[in-house]
Amino acid sequence: MFRDAGREYEVSLRDGTKGRLGLALGDLALDNAFTRYARSLNALGFGIISFAGLPGAPERSMLWIQTPTETVMTLADGDRQPDSELQHLVAKFIAIYFSDIAAIAPELGEPRIRPMAGE
Question: Which pTM value belongs to this model?
Answer without folding.
Answer: 0.87
